């Protein structure tokens, strides 16, 4: 079924526009350049967003809402605070992980002596403020409890040990006793080996120095101290110990460093693509039709689009970020794709026609095709721009605007350049040297709609066609339309799709923090070691009752006890004896002092405030309780987690705890929330699947609408959309082989996948069904021949140019850029596979089915009416044999 009113309207518009362009090419070129320069001046206002939490976590989330609630109820006072009560991810701190250079046991005495020495130097080192050059040390900026800096109990324990003769120390585990108080040390050791309650071996040891974050003056000093400590660790080498430092701004600094490191890759890839574009537009044996400098102009047009996008959005105050550095590769790919399509359409026109008529034919075919793909690309990025993750949103905004400008400059700046080079060709100038060539003008193919030259052997100069274009027209089309080949392709597609769907169920979720930092950096090594050795045992979670509750009533105590027991049945929550809850100890206090826990409200609150919270062992609970007159207005308990070893475990931990607290809210009748500083980052794991499915579904649906409007065949429009969906499934499934997780970075690339997969499929589909009165009676094979002749080579050029462009990123030390290169390669390979194999076979099969149905219904469907001769239909082989007379390959 055809519905080609939009297509015909566009063809008319571009045919008319091409006449205007041919009349004033230079003004159009210069107007485009001035527009790009004017918009590009906005780069002066360019700002960089480096906040890792902001970029890679959802803008709004339950975790962030909970953090606001917890911050209001339990604000942190750095002069009176404890480490497990520090609720914000960005509180000032320096964490260090120590490992042995030989990979051995860190409990060897000489190794521990090195750690103690480093700790002593860090605590006593004098640092000078960058603001006023005044000296200070750790004690001036440390977060305190009862007037003292937080100690590392394991380090204090080692300091207090008598110097013995044993070479390897053993200590009680998991609890040690200091000054008569028991402390749990599980969070200090990694890769530990325990026997009979004694720790006798560990691979890693960690310590953290907590710093003040308020007021502003203290925050600045703490920042100076953080930088000083990391510089100290870098400069002071040890023969025995490796030390890896990480502070509150390390991830943000990683964004800045990655931006700097990306510039050489962008520059190198840019240079490679320029060379590829120039070489691809050369025809060695026909200097007139060679247009290497037109290929360069295609790169210039794409560059103008990038500059315009960055400048315009900088004027609007949209920040840039390291993820958006992938945008140049995409725009170059799209720009070169459009350029190859335009150049191919020009080559198909009759060389004897005037430049105006050749441009009209070029724009009538190619401009409509690139309009379809540009529109679908823009829609895909617009859909991506509503994603809740800022990194994705900003990237899609910059890239979507750049695609729009790439399209505008393609039909204006590049079109004007085509006119100029067309006049050079008609004047018999060499495309390389731009000097007039005295050789005779060759005739060009194009008088037939399928790209074949007229069959005559006299009176014409041989036409020099590109060998790849001829291969697609004369051989590949015949091969792909053969019944045996089509059956084979269908079988291969079923296997491809089945394997992809299977692996879609096994994909890993979530962006790990270590992948934000550059490989080999201190931050990356720290986060890798932390994830391997310490992540499972060091996360505390606050369970908060945000409104007043009758804690003094026995029935309410029993309900609360039942809720807490249910929470501790959670697979990811450690046993009750690892939980800090003021009510547990207060009930023991009441039983010890009064032999009951059933007291009146006033008595309960009085004893709690005036006696219990003033006991040295219970002072810390004052950080967990808020009073409003004679009632407890809000309170919290701190529990420990376990078994959370992977991003999937993190997601399950968060979701299961939320279910626990939601159930608790119903049982207790007061709001209960669960919060940990890590939950803000883990939230991305929860939403990534649903957000990805929603975003891609909207984008694919939009593609269907555009395809139905723009393609003059409804069945083919549906197949193009199904092809896009098929490529998406393939990319997601085969990402598993490259160990790429589904997270915000790969989600960006999946949005790109829609754009690029539409490009290849829509180009071929449009060439297959494009309407001309002289082409109504072409056979299926001849339609494929025409489509492949026009677009087979440009699709290969576009696909391989993008793969070559991103190839250097495989060697990047950034996970983000390597992921981009991997997925873009998958997209290009699968896009070319669908555009050149799967979709053509699907269109051919659907055409045969349609013809069979028409025949069964009594319709008169003549597949060869366009080539009738003497009452007999010519075969494609005969047509090609005749058409190859007078044709020369290049």
UniProtKB/TrEMBL annotation:
SSD domain mapped to chain residues: 262-420, 671-845
Species name: Holothuria leucospilota (Black long sea cucumber)
Keywords: Glycoprotein, Membrane, Transmembrane, Transmembrane helix
Protein name: Patched domain-containing protein 3
The keyword Signal is assigned to this record: no
Any single GO CC term annotated in Swiss-Prot or TrEMBL for this entry: membrane
Topology of this chain in the membrane: Multi-pass membrane protein
Main location class: membrane
One term of GO molecular function: transmembrane transporter activity
Family, as annotated: Belongs to the patched family.
Localization, UniProt: Membrane
Pfam families: Patched
TM helices/strands, residue ranges: 20-46, 262-282, 294-315, 327-346, 366-386, 392-421, 479-503, 693-711, 717-738, 750-769, 789-811, 823-850
């Amino acid at each position: 079924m055809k519905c080609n009113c939009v297509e015909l309207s566009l063809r008319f518009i571009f045919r008319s526009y091409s006449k205007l362009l041919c009349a004033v090419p230079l003004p159009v070129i210069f107007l485009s350049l001035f527009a790009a320069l004017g918009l590009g001046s906005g780069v002066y206002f360019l700002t960089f967003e480096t906040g890792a939490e902001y970029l890679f976590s959802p803008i709004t989330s339950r975790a962030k809402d909970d953090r606001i609630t917890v911050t209001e109820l339990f604000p942190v006072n750095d002069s009176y605070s404890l480490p497990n009560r520090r609720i914000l991810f960005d509180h000032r701190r320096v964490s260090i992980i120590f490992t042995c250079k030989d990979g051995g046991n860190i409990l060897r005495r000489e190794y521990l002596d090195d750690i103690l020495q480093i700790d002593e130097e860090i605590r006593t080192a004098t640092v000078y403020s960058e603001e006023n050059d005044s000296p200070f040390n750790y004690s001036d900026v440390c977060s305190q409890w009862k007037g003292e800096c937080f100690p590392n109990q394991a380090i204090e324990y080692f300091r207090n040990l008598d110097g013995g003769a044993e070479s390897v120390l053993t200590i009680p585990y998991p609890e040690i006793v200091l000054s008569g108080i028991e402390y749990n040390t599980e969070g200090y050791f990694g890769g530990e080996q325990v026997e009979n309650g004694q720790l006798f071996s560990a691979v890693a040891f960690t310590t953290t120095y907590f710093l003040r974050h308020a007021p502003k003056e203290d925050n600045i000093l703490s920042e100076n101290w953080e930088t000083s400590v990391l510089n100290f660790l870098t400069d002071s080498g040890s023969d025995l110990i490796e030390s890896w430092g990480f502070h509150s701004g390390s991830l943000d600094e990683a964004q800045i460093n990655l931006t700097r490191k990306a510039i050489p890759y962008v520059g190198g890839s840019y240079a490679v693509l320029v060379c590829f574009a120039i070489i691809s537009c050369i025809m060695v044996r026909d200097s007139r039709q060679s247009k290497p400098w037109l290929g360069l102009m295609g790169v210039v047009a794409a560059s103008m689009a990038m500059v315009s996008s960055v400048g315009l959005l900088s004027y609007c105050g949209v920040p840039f970020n390291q993820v958006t550095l992938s945008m140049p590769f995409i725009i170059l790919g799209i720009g070169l794709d459009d350029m190859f399509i335009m150049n191919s359409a020009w080559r198909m026109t009759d060389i004897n026609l005037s430049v105006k008529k050749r441009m009209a034919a070029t724009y009538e075919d190619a401009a409509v095709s690139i309009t379809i793909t540009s529109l679908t690309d823009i829609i895909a990025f617009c859909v991506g721009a509503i994603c809740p993750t800022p990194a994705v949103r900003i990237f899609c905004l910059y890239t979507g605007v750049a695609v729009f400008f790439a399209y505008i400059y393609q039909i204006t700046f590049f079109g004007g350049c085509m006119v100029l080079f067309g006049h050079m060709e008609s004047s018999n100038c060499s495309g390389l040297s731009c000097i007039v060539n005295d050789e005779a003008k060759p005739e060009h193919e194009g008088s037939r709609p399928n790209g074949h030259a007229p069959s005559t052997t006299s009176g014409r100069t041989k036409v020099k066609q590109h060998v790849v274009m001829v291969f697609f027209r004369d051989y590949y089309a015949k091969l792909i339309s053969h019944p045996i080949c089509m059956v084979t392709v269908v079988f291969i597609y079923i296997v491809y799709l089945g394997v992809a769907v299977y692996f879609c169920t096994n994909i890993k979720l979530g962006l790990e923090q270590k992948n934000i930092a550059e490989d080999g950096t201190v931050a990356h090594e720290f986060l890798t070691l932390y994830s391997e050795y310490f992540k499972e045992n060091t996360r505390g979670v606050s369970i908060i009752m945000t409104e007043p509750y009758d804690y003094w009533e026995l029935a309410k105590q029993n309900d609360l006890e039942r809720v807490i027991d249910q929470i501790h049945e959670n697979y990811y929550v450690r046993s009750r004896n690892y939980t800090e809850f003021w009510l547990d100890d207060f009930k023991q206090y009441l039983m010890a002092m009064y032999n009951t826990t059933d007291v009146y409200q006033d008595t309960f609150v009085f004893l709690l405030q005036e006696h219990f919270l003033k006991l040295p062992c219970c002072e810390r609970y004052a950080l967990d309780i808020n009073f409003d007159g004679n009632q407890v207005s809000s309170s919290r308990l701190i529990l420990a987690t376990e078994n959370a070893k992977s991003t999937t475990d993190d997601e399950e931990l968060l979701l299961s705890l939320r279910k626990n607290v939601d159930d608790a809210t119903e049982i207790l009748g007061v709001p209960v929330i669960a919060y940990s500083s890590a939950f803000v980052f883990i939230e991305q794991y929860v939403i990534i699947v649903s957000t990805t499915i929603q975003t891609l579904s909207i984008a694919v649906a939009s593609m269907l609408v555009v395809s139905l409007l723009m393609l003059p065949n409804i069945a083919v429009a549906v197949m193009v959309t199904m092809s896009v969906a098929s490529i998406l499934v393939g990319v997601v499934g085969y990402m598993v082989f490259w160990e790429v997780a589904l997270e915000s970075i790969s989600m960006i690339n999946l949005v790109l996948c829609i754009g690029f997969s539409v490009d290849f499929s829509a180009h071929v589909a449009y060439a297959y069904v494009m309407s001309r009165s002289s082409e109504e009676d072409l056979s299926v094979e001849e339609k494929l021949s025409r489509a492949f002749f026009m677009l087979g080579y440009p699709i290969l050029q576009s696909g391989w140019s993008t793969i070559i462009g991103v190839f250097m990123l495989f060697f990047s030390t950034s996970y983000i850029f390597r992921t981009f290169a991997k997925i873009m390669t998958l997209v290009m390979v699968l896009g070319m596979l669908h555009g050149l194999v799967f979709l053509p076979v699907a269109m051919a099969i659907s055409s045969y089915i349609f013809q069979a149905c028409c025949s069964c219904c009594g319709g008169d469907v003549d597949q060869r009416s366009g080539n009738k001769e003497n009452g007999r239909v010519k075969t494609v082989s005969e047509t090609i044999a005749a058409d190859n007379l007078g044709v020369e390959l290049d």
